[in-house]
Amino acid sequence: MSPRVLILMGSDSDWEVMSEVRKALDELGIASEAHVSSAHRTPERTAGLAREAAGRGVEVIVCGAGAAAHLAGVVAAESELPVLGVPLASSDLQGLDALLATVQMPAGVPVGTLAIGKAGARNAGLLAARIIARGDAEVAARVRAQRARMTAEVEAKDAALQARLAAPQG
Predict the structure, then answer these.
(1) What does the pLDDT read at residue 169?
(2) What is the CATH number of the domain that holds 97?
């Protein structure tokens, strides 16, 4: 199965967070591949991965980088695919620098920016799935089922809380 989502990260130490993208995609049956490629240390490799992605069947690219992260912007400059950026908290600024570098793209170089860290990485995987679902009825059905499971979990938690609150105190 060809990968439909390309996951890029600036360092192998980013995998702890970026693996959340892969987990979300795996839950929805969407093939992905992941690579370490730096916008600054391996710019030719990064540009090549971005340029070749669509021709290999990739539909969305998710990039995670910390510090003054430029990975998502460099990839967006090299590809017409949707690019999602996950800022990582790998510097003394706890990810704020990565967030600002990822979200403040110049006009004409769009990057969808998610939250800092693991929640942002998971949401990047889910958003990539939703993008793919727009043109794939099977993925759309799996996305709807995942949302229904999430709803049922919240409703079950509320029912348990209501039962505890209704129980006599004392």
Answers:
(1) 82
(2) 3.40.50.1970
Identify whether 142 is part of a domain. no
Per-residue pLDDT at 145: 98
In a domain, 126, yes or no: yes
Strands 83-88 and 112-113: parallel
Determine which helix (DSSP H) or strand (DSSP E) holds 138, and give its type and residue range. Answer: helix 137-166
pTM: 0.93
Amino acid sitting at position 2: S
Domain count across the chain: 1
Q: Is residue 99 domain-resident?
A: yes
pLDDT in tens, 137-163: 999 999 999 999 999 999 999 999 999
